[in-house]
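$ run holo --ligand "zinc ion" --emit tokens
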Amino acid sequence: MSETNPYMMVGERLCMDFINTVSWRESAEKRRDWFTSYAKLIDWSVHAEVLTAQQAQDLLVEAGENPSQAEEVLKQVIEMREVMYRMFKSISKKTSPDEQDLACFNEYVNHFYRSLQVIHEKDQYMLKFKQPEKNLDTMLPPILQSAVNLLVSKTELVRVKQCEGDPCGWLFFDTSRNRSRRWCSMADCGNRAKVRRFYQKGK
Ligand SMILES: [Zn+2]
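-- output --
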């Protein structure tokens, strides 16, 4: 949840990094959403390698011509992100997701998985989302797919965790061999916890 680097990516899965585009998630005062405009969403998507620089440029032109549509997409992106946040948070706490959230998530699945196609490319068959290039929400399918793949992975779900730093709230996929990771980042929340322990010992 670093304030200094706006594009810190520590989630280890695209869907986790997408969820972590809010700093200090669990704090009412400090909470800061990175997606304050459609342009910011595009910027992050390039950084996350969901969009190429060329795609980003084209989408920004498109958004400039259809500002209200871009606004609408931004609203949907944030809604989907918050639904995913609540679902994966409940997974990290080993509780069931809210039914309404799952229903909402499935609306996105229904919508975007319609464009899934088997494509023949370079002597290989691949499953790809085929949407019109200029769709303003073209960054969403791969993010959604990352979430779906993780959800149905069964064995991997136990690695979904929430940072213990309070009030960080960030989620991550724990890739450590013995599943011992506790913080979004050692340099941030991990370090703050260490400092706190040091002072408590000193008292
Ligand atoms: Zn943290």
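-- notes --
Residues 67-92 form the longest helix (26 residues).
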